[in-house]
């Protein structure tokens, strides 16, 4: 390897990829990133932007030359043809990691677990719980991890960090920004997708990226295939997140927003005609069943989990989304994603 602190970030313009870039730079890493198209982002940063596409193996192999780490945080543009493209993209990352002896970092999800693995009262979901998904997206997630596990026997190393639903000032498309509130608008109401009294797990994106960067610092001590769960912000009754949003908005504007039920009936009605809504409906089970993850393995390695207080994290998120201004432009909806 040319430099043990050189990292390639795939998906650097997205939510988790962008946050990883910021925190890797702060930790002293030399960061490279692929960018599709003819022009490079107009940024006064220290990123080495390379023209290329994660769907091109030659581009990924060239960009990863001399890198010790590859952050795989990329998705197809606009999530189009997600099911057909995500595995080939990962295969290109694996090929590059094997060639360089690099560590692959993957932001994981809970989609690969079916309800049979969900914890009962007083228990938490462990990293090695059985993976029997009931959705198409979950099945693909299982295959992603299976391919990464095989890669860890072929010269690559793998670090997977699973977390709850993302939120943050630059988190991109997610349930917070596409379900609960609308970016760029004053928050007059909060739409909550969960069933009453059912817990839900959230993760503040800067905390997730911080956790990954800390784990990278000790990666030599980890197994070749390492998976970790984050506890994040556990909303035990579905009221903690909406309560934090209401408090922050009222402090900023003097008016508390109303709480309303998310219109699942409308999603069901329109889903046969809109692919985005079909994806949302498929994941509804995660709002109907409490799912909390066990972070004991993470605590054993790091000693503590990076954790921003909820109100502080929500305030930064709403400010970053333009929700604490008196006026703003309405953003187009996107696909909620972890």
Write the layout of secondary structure elements.
Elements (H helix, E strand, L loop, with lengths): L5 E5 L4 H12 L3 E6 L12 E4 L5 H7 L5 E4 L9 H19 L2 E6 L27 H16 L5 E6 L2 E3 L7 H6 L8 E4 L7 E5 H13 L7 E5 L3 E3 L4 H14 L4 E4 L2 H7 L4 H8 L2 H4 L7 H7 L7 H11 L18
Parallel strand pairs: 1-2, 1-4, 2-3, 4-5, 5-6, 6-10, 7-9, 8-12
Antiparallel strand pairs: 9-11
Helix pairs in contact: 1-6, 2-3, 3-4, 7-12, 8-9
Give an account of the 3D structure.
This protein is of the alpha/beta class and 338 residues long. The chain contains 12 helices and 12 strands. It has helices at residues 15-26, 57-63, 82-100, 136-151, 175-180, 205-217, 240-253, 264-270, 275-282, 285-288, 296-302, 310-320, and strands at 6-10, 30-35, 48-51, 69-72, 103-108, 157-162, 165-167, 189-192, 200-204, 225-229, 233-235, 258-261. It has a 7-stranded parallel beta sheet with strand order 3-2-1-4-5-6-10, with helices on both faces. A 3-stranded mixed beta sheet has the order 7-9-11. It is globular, with a radius of gyration of 20 Å.
Short overview:
The chain is an alpha/beta fold. It is 37% helix and 16% strand.
State the order of secondary-structure elements, H for helix, E for strand.
EHEEHEHEHEEHEEHEEHEHHHHH
What's the mean pLDDT score? Answer: 88
User: What form results from the Cα inertia axes?
Assistant: globular
Total count of helical runs of at least 4 residues: 12
Radius of gyration: 20 Å
- The poorly predicted ranges are 327-338
Strand content: 15-25%
Instruction: Count every beta strand, where a strand is a DSSP E run of 2 or more residues.
Output: 12
| Category by helix and strand content | alpha/beta
Helix content, binned percent:
25-40%
Q: Strand count, sense and closure of the main sheet?
A: 7 strands, parallel
Main-sheet strand order equals: 3-2-1-4-5-6-10
Report the span from N to C terminus.
32 Å
């Amino acid at each position: 390897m040319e430099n043990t602190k050189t990292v390639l970030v795939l998906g650097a313009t997205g939510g988790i990829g962008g946050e990883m870039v910021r925190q890797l730079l702060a930790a002293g890493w030399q960061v490279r990133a692929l960018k599709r198209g003819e022009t490079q982002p107009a940024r006064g940063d220290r990123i080495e932007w390379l023209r290329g596409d994660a769907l091109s193996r030659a581009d990924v192999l060239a960009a990863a030359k001399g890198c010790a780490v590859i952050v795989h945080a990329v998705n197809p543009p606009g999530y189009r043809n997600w099911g057909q493209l995500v595995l080939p993209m990962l295969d290109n990352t694996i090929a590059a990691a094997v060639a360089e002896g690099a560590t692959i970092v993957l932001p994981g999800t809970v989609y690969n677990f079916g309800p049979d693995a969900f914890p009962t009262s007083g228990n938490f979901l462990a990293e090695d719980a059985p993976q029997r998904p009931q959705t198409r997206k979950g099945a693909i997630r299982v295959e992603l991890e299976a391919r990464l596990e095989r890669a860890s026997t072929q010269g690559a190393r793998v670090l997977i960090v699973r977390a709850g639903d993302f939120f943050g000032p630059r988190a991109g498309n997610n349930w917070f920004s596409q379900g609960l509130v609308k970016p760029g608008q004053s928050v007059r109401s909060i739409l909550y997708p969960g069933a009453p009294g059912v817990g839900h797990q959230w993760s503040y994106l800067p905390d997730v990226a911080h956790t990954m960067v800390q784990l990278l610092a000790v990666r030599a001590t980890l197994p070749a295939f390492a998976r970790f769960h984050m506890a994040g912000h556990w909303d035990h009754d579905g009221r903690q997140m909406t309560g934090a949003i209401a408090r922050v908005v009222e402090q900023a504007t003097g008016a508390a927003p109303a709480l309303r039920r998310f219109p699942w009936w409308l999603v069901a009605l329109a889903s046969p005609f809109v692919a985005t809504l079909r994806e949302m409906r498929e994941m509804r089970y995660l709002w109907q069943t409490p799912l909390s993850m066990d972070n004991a393995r993470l605590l054993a390695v790091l000693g503590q989990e990076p954790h921003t207080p909820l109100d502080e994290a929500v305030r930064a998120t709403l400010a970053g989304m333009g929700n604490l201004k008196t006026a703003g432009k309405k953003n187009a909806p996107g696909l909620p994603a972890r």
